[in-house]
Specification:
By secondary structure, the protein is an all-alpha fold. It is built from eight helices and no strands. The relative contact order is 0.22.
Length: 204
């Protein structure tokens, strides 16, 4: 149980991609005071968690109404996860000028969504809830833990950014990208196995 919780927490922490998002947070919040930055980070992380919980609570029923199957969840989640992983592995040092268009305090967009909680996070979470390999309580616990670790990471965004530098954060982001790529392949193999009933099973 603890091993599964650890693996799921690591997966969701990688999906939240707080380390890879540090340059975005630093660039968007640099003009605010430290206390203001902390309040914005806390608020945006809460928005992100609430968005994810909203999809978990109502998303399954909505997609069942549309007759979207588990393999569809898994395959789509794998594709989105793979796309995110490729972007992370190909990541270049962030250019702060990219975010000059955001002159006002960011509210919900783009930090809460899609930076913290994006399509890959939502789809992967719904896939884990739907397939039933892990108890839903375990998945929810892993999400909350990963969210907590991500919040702590973002709280120290300025310090971590100074400690590792752009290239250090880039290396960490690419490392997470490799892990996510492997998880994406695993998820797509599960989808194919389930859809075509070929008797192939991949451990979660």
């Amino acid at each position: 149980m603890l091993h599964s919780l650890f693996r799921l927490t690591l997966l969701f922490y990688a999906l939240f991609n707080s380390l890879g998002s540090l340059p975005v947070f630093v660039a968007l919040l640099k003009k605010f005071s430290f206390r203001k930055q902390q309040r914005i980070i806390l608020r945006e992380c809460i928005f992100a968690l609430l968005t994810l919980i909203l999809f978990i609570t109502f998303g399954q029923g909505f997609f069942r109404l549309l007759e979207i199957s588990l393999p569809a969840f898994q395959l789509t989640g794998g594709i989105l996860l793979g796309s995110l992983a490729i972007n992370m592995m190909k990541a270049l040092p962030s250019q702060e000028e990219t975010f000059d268009q955001y002159e006002d305090e960011p509210i919900f967009y783009p930090l809460a969504f899609p930076v913290i909680t994006g399509p890959a996070t939502i789809t992967s979470t719904l896939g884990h809830m739907e397939e039933g390999i892990f108890p839903k309580e375990l998945v929810l616990g892993a999400i909350v833990l990963a969210w907590g670790f991500s919040l702590i990471t973002l709280f120290f965004s300025s310090s971590i950014n100074r400690l590792f530098g752009k290239m250090g954060l880039l290396a960490l982001e690419r490392l997470f990208g490799i892990s996510l790529a492997l998880m994406a392949g695993n998820l797509m193999l599960k989808a194919i196995s389930t859809a075509f009933n070929i008797g192939y099973y991949v451990m979660a």
